[in-house]
């Protein structure tokens, strides 16, 4: 029965975890998987999350079903974090992670416009194209980042989007681009808004790192501006990085439109056939953290410290080598180095430096102490 299936490639990043574990060299450096790490290479459970989990364990009285929309209060409180006070024309539901939000949004688009085209900048998170493609949408790519100059290729992007037609979807990273760390200037965001309005493109914003770039408010500003400028937008949100909840799978999808109720009904119907209802635990934790002022303050403080750590490492990396200078102005956990697969492989073999095959590094995997060894290792490959 299953002879119609094709063999699938293994997840390269997960394969890297095994290789790293088996490596016995004391100076090995893990810049692979995209999770925050502290100075000891540890990915901690955040203090406010631990406290909220203790409250849940003590006070939760039932595990009975919620609805397909998940934890309604979670989505309300998170909407305030994402959009500021009092958003209207928004339909939102809790989803299993940002991935679930992206897929639900893709399925909603397919329901309304079967076979619609989604424009995706290159490079991007490797799961973007499969999510939209598996939902039945067509993918077109546009230039986004020029690896050689380590800068956004905005002219190339606008030129490529000249081919976009009314009813197409434009995927945008709200902040902290994965894998490049590169972002648009304020003026470029305005131009993107004007382009969407003039050409009838639907912006689909993936906000997976709010608070890890320049701060909670600053990281949401571009998205908010776009939502002010345009009648319709789709927002896929992940709490898995900014609350450190990764495996708990916490996210939300919001759709801004005049047809909120119609959209909400379809989101719920789609959620029921995809996962019936999202997992509760992580969203209940986020709800408690946002509900209790003391927990919220502690979460914000710890998030501030995580961001300061990443940006401190960025500054140190940028100062360490001329070809890494752009990293100082980029934001989020990642940077994309101009390294071919052979260089990535050689760095692993000869120096115990582990990174994704495309040259993406997780900056949080470094420490101020390991930066010199890292830079010494990569320098010969930076032309
Ligand atoms: N979007 C981007 C850009 C991401 O980097 C990630 C996580 N790697 C996600 C979405 C999905 O996040 P989650 O783990 O919440 O599904």
Automatic annotation (TrEMBL):
Cofactor(s) annotated in UniProt: pyridoxal 5'-phosphate
Q: Which PANTHER family match?
A: ASPARTATE AMINOTRANSFERASE (PTHR11879), ASPARTATE AMINOTRANSFERASE, MITOCHONDRIAL (PTHR11879:SF22)
Give the quaternary structure: Homodimer.
Name-wise, this protein is Aromatic amino acid aminotransferase
One Pfam family assigned to this protein is Aminotran_1_2
Q: Which domain of life is it from?
A: Bacteria
Keywords linked to the UniProt accession: Aminotransferase, Pyridoxal phosphate, Transferase
What's this protein's family per the entry?
Answer: Belongs to the class-I pyridoxal-phosphate-dependent aminotransferase family.
One record GO biological process: L-phenylalanine biosynthetic process from chorismate via phenylpyruvate
Q: Which GO terms describe its cellular component?
A: cytosol
Q: Which GO terms describe its molecular function?
A: identical protein binding; L-aspartate:2-oxoglutarate aminotransferase activity; L-tyrosine-2-oxoglutarate transaminase activity; pyridoxal phosphate binding
Which stretches make up the Aminotransferase class I/classII large domain? 27-375
> Known CDD domains for this protein?
AAT_like
Q: Does the keyword Disulfide bond apply?
A: no
């Amino acid at each position: 029965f299953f002879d119609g299936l094709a063999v699938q490639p293994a997840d390269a990043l997960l394969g890297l975890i095994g290789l790293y574990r088996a490596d016995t060299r004391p100076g090995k450096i893990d810049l692979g998987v995209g999770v925050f790490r502290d100075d000891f290479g540890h990915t901690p459970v955040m203090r406010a999350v631990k406290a909220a989990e203790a409250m849940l364990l003590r006070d939760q009285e039932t595990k009975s079903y919620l609805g397909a929309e998940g934890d309604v209060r979670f989505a309300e409180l998170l909407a305030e974090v994402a959009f500021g006070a009092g958003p209207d024309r928004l339909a939102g539901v809790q989803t299993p992670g940002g991935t679930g939000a992206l897929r639900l949004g893709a399925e909603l688009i397919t329901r309304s416009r079967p076979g619609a085209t989604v424009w995706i900048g290159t490079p991007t998170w490797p799961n973007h194209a499969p999510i939209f493609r598996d939902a039945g949408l067509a993918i077109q790519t546009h230039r986004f980042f020029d690896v050689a100059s380590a800068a956004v290729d905005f002219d190339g992007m606008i030129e490529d989007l000249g081919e976009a037609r009314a009813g197409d979807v434009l995927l945008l990273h709200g902040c902290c681009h994965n894998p490049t760390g590169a972002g648009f200037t304020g003026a470029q965001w305005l131009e993107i808004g004007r382009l969407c309005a003039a050409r009838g493109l639907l912006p689909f914003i993936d906000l997976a790192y709010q608070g890890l770039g320049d701060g909670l408010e600053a990281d949401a500003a571009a998205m908010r501006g776009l939502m002010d400028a345009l009648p319709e937008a789709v927002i896929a949100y992940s709490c898995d990085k900014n609350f450190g909840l990764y495996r708990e799978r916490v996210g939300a999808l919001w759709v801004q439109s005049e047809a909120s109720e119609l959209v909400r009904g379809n989101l719920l119907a789609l959620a029921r056939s995809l996962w019936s209802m999202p997992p509760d635990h992580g969203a209940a934790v986020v709800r408690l953290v946002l509900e209790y002022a003391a927990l919220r303050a502690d979460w914000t403080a710890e998030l501030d410290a995580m961001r300061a750590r990443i940006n401190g490492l960025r500054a140190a990396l940028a100062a360490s080598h001329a070809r890494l200078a752009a990293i100082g102005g980029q934001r989020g956990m990642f940077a994309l180095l101009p390294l071919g697969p052979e260089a990535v492989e050689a760095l692993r073999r000869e120096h115990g430096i582990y990174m994704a095959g495309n040259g993406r590094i997780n900056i949080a995997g470094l420490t101020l102490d390991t930066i010199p060894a890292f830079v010494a290792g990569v320098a010969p490959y930076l032309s």
